[in-house]
Amino acid sequence: NATPDRWATLLVEDDGPGVPAGNLPDLFARFWRGSDKPGGCGLGLSIVEEIALRHGGQAVAENVAPHGLRVGLRLRAG
What we know:
Layout: E1 7-13, H1 44-54, E2 58-63, E3 69-76
Antiparallel strand pairs: 1-3, 2-3
């Protein structure tokens, strides 16, 4: 959706267990993976953040109630 201040936001949300609050800042770090996640290489969200930053935007993540995680990509619209 495009907001009145001319930002486009893409949100992805799941209904899983979320991420421990102390680990939220780590989600966008290169090669970081949760301790209970054996697969992957920990690059996906760091790539999302790098793309956002290079286009003057931002990537954000937050836990949602009652459970789940929401990851957002905000970019200038226009």
